[in-house]
Amino acid sequence: MIFRLGLIHAQDINTFHLDKSHIFSLYTGFSGYIERDDAMSHYKYRGHALPVEISYRYSGTNCRQIFYANFDNLILISSLPNYDNAGLNHYVQSTNIQMGYSYLHRAFRLARYRSDIFFGGEINSLLNLRQHAYIDNNEFLMLDQFNSLGLKAQLEKRFASNKRVAFFNLNIPFISYVLMGDTYNAFVGKKIDPLMNYGGNMLLYLAKKGDFVSFKKLVYFKTDFSFVQSISNHIGIECKYSLRYYKFSQYQNINYSKNLQSQFLIGIVGKL
Amino acid sequence: MKTKISILIFLIIPFSGCEKLFFEDDISNKPLNNFEMFWSDFDKFYPSFGIKHINWDSVYIINRPKISDQTSGIELYNVLSGMIKPFKDGHVTIRSNYGQCNSYTIPPDYYSNMRIYPQSYLSSFEINNSNISYWSVKDHNIGYISINTFNVRSETFVYADNSFLVIDDIIKQFKNKDGIIIDLRQNGGGLPANVETIVDRFTDKKRLYIKLRSKNGPGKNDFSEWIDYYIEPKGSEQFLKPVVVLTGKGTGSAAEWFTLAMKTLPNTTVVGDTTAGCFSPKVERELPNGWSFTLSSKIAVSSDMVQYEGFGIPPDLIVLNTKTDLDNKRDAMLEKAIEVIVTKQ
Question: In this predicted model, what pLDDT tens digit does every residue of A22-64 receive, in sequence order?
């Protein structure tokens, strides 16, 4: 869809919107993370990585469908000094996986500004798995796992040359099924204690023992701004900046984990 | 083009300043901050002040005046070490660049946590598994199993390790023995899931063996409900003849779960010395100066609500190895275990 902009005139903008297209993207770039898990540490942990993201977008006449999957694996470190000789190393091995599907419907067309505004919803699943190690690399496993349903808005802005399109997305989950953390940390309870002697897969156990939460316990948003430049009718490049933040309070609003992810991505885009 | 770049910068600059918006500043590395965080984390997380008769508020009042911004690292280490010494808890430790302080220590002249000349008693003495080894006792129809650790996990999300399933083979090999000795004297613990893999091969029915509850808030009485843990028959066959469990001060944590579980069985006798008395799993925390410490976060009691945390499980028969035994290449504890089984034949 977007790469045909170069072939149409400004007054043909309606034709552009009726054009159904399938767009596949593959991105990589730079991820920056800041993490603080109060159940494990009073300290912020930071790190950066080379993320990988794939996405599929379907543009219908009046709707947009987006599927994406994003993966990161990195080591987070804190400002705390390490003493290698004493076996004191402070680091967190972190794996982040996020997948989402959104369906959006056109709500407004701002023809004068060559822009459209879409509203809809997104279901997404996020896993932030962390292995905290402080003494002798002895690792304690923690995780944040949310399966969320949220409201999503998208602004599409086409530029005069018709070869460039900018997108702005905002997703705010309003209800989530969250998994509780691991048993080997401060402040856990009856849902997690049976993990002590559980012989099966911990993730499956936790998946059955999750809670439905809303804004009171989980503050969560993801926003991104991207800019697409077409190279030909079927190929383009995309630059994207995304920001994701969540704060999840597990017990009495005292045991929380916070995570801020910012990503600069550059991707190749193919249109069918 | 200039406008587009301006828009991009306008959008990105606020994002890059988000850290201040979403995160508090880290607590700075000053002696007083280290002291306060150390005291406060114990105050919030440690569940057993009452059992150990420790008045943590008094500990603060006594030690706080010793700390100022001029306090040196070694002085701070000595103060914090002194604060945890009375816990006598194997899971309460502090690690610094000046050394490590364990609140529970085994006396240097203690000989009851070692096998003494096992080749004198066992038919062969080759390690057949790093976690769990088994042999026959010389001149007797008795099996001997040594479990050195329960701290093994094979997969990221699974606490139980399949290597402990070797117990099924051992039970098959030992099924015609008159009894089995299980040696835990050098077992400092591990994961309870591995404990049950073994004990489930010695029980004829489902039995409650331990109850556990966690701190779930900062208040002194913020505890979760008791959670019951059971053993139950598993594996192709179970060994129901006499069993002796050898314990000592080196038997700690998950090895004490094992001992408690075995004590629920009518055919089991515990021989040796009182165990370490640290049942609760530990958590690790950090201090602003990069030191780390560990503490217990739960309370465990036996099925009949007896609290051994901090005291250890007393054996049914107290037998200690002494320096004289070591000099004479004699393992008095193992000899007693053999005697118990022979007597029960």
Answer: 999 999 999 999 999 988 899 999 999 999 999 999 998 889 9
3-state secondary structure of B222: coil
Residue type, A141: L
Average pLDDT over residues A177-190: 74
Pairwise CB contact (< 8 Å): A197 & B196: yes
Please give, rounded to a whole number of angstroms, the shortest distance from the CA of A28 to a CA of chain B: 18
pTM of the model: 0.87
Cα angle B208-B134-B325, degrees, rounded to a multiple of 5:
95
Helices (H), chain B: 2-16, 18-22, 31-45, 56-63, 73-84, 166-174, 192-199, 254-263, 323-327, 332-344
Q: What was the pLDDT predicted at B101?
A: 94
Interface test with B, best of A193, A244, A245 (most B CBs within 10 A): A193
Would A236 be classed as within a structural domain? no
ipTM of the modeled complex = 0.84
Does A200 lie at the interface with B, CB-CB under 8 angstroms? yes
Phi, psi of B286 (to 5 degrees): -125, 155
Q: What is the pLDDT averaged over residues A243-263?
A: 87
Phi, psi of A194 (to 5 degrees): -60, -15
Is position A154 within any domain? yes
Task: Locate B158 and state its tokens.
Answer: 């699974």
Q: Is A254 on the interface with B (CB under 8 A)?
A: yes
Residue B86 pLDDT:
93
Domain-embedded: residue A162: yes
Structurally, how many domains does chain A consist of? 1
β pairing state of B292-296 and B93-96: antiparallel
> What is the Cα–Cα distance from B293 to B96, expressed in whole angstroms?
9
Range of the domain at A146: 13-23+35-48+65-228+246-260
Q: Which of A125, A136, A252 is nearest to A178 (CA)?
A: A125
Q: Does A190 touch chain B (CB under 8 A)?
A: yes
* Cα–Cα distance for residue pair B326/B303, rounded to 1 Å: 37
CA pair distance B143, A239, nearest whole angstrom = 69
Q: What are phi and psi of B97, to 5 degrees?
A: -75, 0
Q: Is residue A179, in this structure, part of any structural domain at all?
A: yes
Question: Is A207 touching B (CB cutoff 8 A)?
Answer: no
Bridge partner residues of B293 (DSSP): B94, B285
Dump pLDDT digits (tens) for B303-339.
999 989 888 999 999 999 999 999 999 999 999 999 9
Q: In chain B, pLDDT over 90 holds for what percent of residues?
A: 66
Average pLDDT, stretch B55-84? 96
Facing B157 at nearest CB: one of A86, A201, A245: A201
